[in-house]
Amino acid sequence: MNLSDNVQFIKGIGPKRAEALTKLSIFTLEDLLTFFPRDYQDRKKITKISDVSFGQHACIFGKIVNTYSQNASATMSIFTVEADDGTGKISANFYRRTSPYQKFDVFAGIKKSFKRGLFVYIYGLCEFRFGQKQINIEDYELTENQGFTPNSFGRLLPVYDLTYGITQKNMLSFIKPVVEKYADLYPDIISGNEKYKTNLMPISEAVKQLHFPDSLEKAELARKSFAMQEFLLLQIILTKARIKNKTTEKINRYQITKKLLTPFKNKLKFNFTNGQKRAINEIFKDMMSGKNMNRMLMGDVGSGKTVVALSAILLAAENGYQSAIIAPTEILAEQHYLTFKNMIEGLNVNIELVTSSSLKSKKKRDEILASVENGTTNIIVGTHSVMEERVKFKNLSLAVIDEQHRFGVLQKAALLAKGKFVDILMMTATPIPRGLAMTIYGEMSVSVIKELPPNRIPVKTYCTTESSAYDKALDEIEKGNQIFIVYPLVDESDNLELKSAVQEAETLAETVFREKRIALLHGKMPPKEKNEIMQRFKNKEFDILVATTVIEVGIDIPNATMIIIQHADRYGLATLHQLRGRVGRGQKQSYCILVSSSRGKNSAQRLAIMTQTNDGFKIAEEDLKMRGPGEFTGTMQHGFPEFKAGDIVKDVDIIEYTKTAAADIMEKDPDLSLPENKNIRLLVSNKKYAQLSKIISVG
Ligand code: ADP
Ligand code: MG
Predict the structure, then answer these.
(1) Of 60, 161, 229, 357, which has the fewest CB atoms closer than 10 Å, so is most exposed?
(2) Ion ligand 2: residues, CB < 5 A
(3) Does residue 404 have its Cβ closer than 6 Å to ligand 1?
(4) Distance from the CA of 392 to the center of ligand 1, in angstroms?
(5) Is the pTM of this model over 0.70?
(6) Largest CA distance in the chain
(7) Three-class SS of residue 97?
(8) SS3 560
(9) Which residues in 89-105 are b (16+ Cβ under 10 Å) and which e?
């Protein structure tokens, strides 16, 4: 068999199970071979029956000396196997539900296999009951003789992710022979390159050890070895892209004419902070250079990234080029649209909103699309809709991606493909872990805005009960301020969860806040309605906005001074910080109130961090340490192929090492034509990696 062959041809799998395995992204022999366990269960030690500890799991081995079944109750039967290992006897039990009307014997199969005189390995929980040593059978393996090597005993047993229709036993039975037979087929890119071999294992050994390790230490070494290969490949692709980008001259030429920038600056009601000034300088320098800009603007929530983006957009417009800024939600896009429109009023530039709602009516759509295509529109503000096929630009030269962590690499590529030499500016308040920064973002320059605009009063954060939160909210409303109340919806499409949020909002409207003006906003509302509610809230037509996390990013309502976050323990810290950033945007003292019903020590500790600091970078660091729900580390959300063994948090050293190694290899052998690089060439052309390299080198 070849690594690219479909798994359905592997013995014991077949079309039906192959179909189930696709749910785990297992299609080919290679996928199965590299479907590494998520954990290991320690079954190395076989405990003597005389030594078992009660209340604990153990593996035992003994000879079957007796078997019998009995009814424990009307609905429960027990089949007992007495095993003896020379040090003592234990009663091992299978439990089965039965009904008095049942005709067949629920233990028929088991009775046939468990014959007196056979030997058995058993894993289960040991107990002492009715004056007897007992073990509840969770797993077993039978044998006729004592010298037999068991499959799932006496070793670290791999624990795999499963899907409907596939058990651990199935998984083990597919993977064990495959690893034994085919692990050697896996191409090794390290061994060929003598110089880059460290004290790691050859790749085939790593594959074997990852599935069936001799020890946990070996498993970790195997993981690192495989990770080394994964990261080296990625770095090779990145290096190739870098070389290509370096040698590509762009044709866009910008000059600072100040035709638009000066009137814009004069109209602003504030001065730029030093951080904003520095960022603008760096961006302008990139744009005016002969190479494409690929820059990330990082700044905490509220640091004023929007006006920095607008400055870049106006530089492009001064030179007759189009810009697009995309945001992850319609609400945010609309908000940017209105902010920009307001800020460029009186200047000779045209702006259009491109979202699924703005493109809904045919007449309006034709108008907008035509004006973008013929160049009448200079600035396009929108959502994912901007990346659709039907949106064509005359001369797009700057793409700004707001809240970039919400977009995947593929989407960014689609946007870049809309123009010829598109400068790209990404903006985020979510700092990127160093390991990730060194992978794909290694190709990117970074500007950081460290300070918040002056006279900002830091938001005060408290953990408290619901009722005292509402008391405080009423005080704020008395002062003419506005309140957000946020309910978590883990899944915006989960109707049950949504219903409970809507119900709680209705209850609030009828009780505590009976006399207040209250509105509800959630992800399932039509975009038009959402925007209308936001707009009315901004116009102070409501005192309270009850919302699901649709308000998480970017919303700017300076008159809102309090955000109450319900079930705060269900959010990651990054999200909490984003939510908190919705207040404290004006001149007034603002509050973030975390309401949590969880008694867990861990969640109390996590929430305490929120009360101690307003620094988004520190929060991200703490979150990373505690390894919350993967908000910062999910490679999928960054549009990467998932790493099989590599871990962008743990493997910073390996990533660093492979970066140098890749540069070295590519310098000596840019076409990867040397014999020792044969396997690299092979893997880079692999479908998965080929797609990635295409994406990275767009533009
Ligand atoms: P974020 O970086 O989170 O996207 P925004 O761009 O939305 O932040 O800015 C937050 C608020 O701060 C906006 O109301 C904006 O007008 C205001 N702002 C931006 N820069 C300054 C500044 N230099 N001085 C005062 N206010 C500013
Ligand atoms: Mg923003």
Answers:
(1) 161
(2) 554
(3) no
(4) 31
(5) no
(6) 96
(7) strand
(8) strand
(9) bbbbbbebebeeeeeee
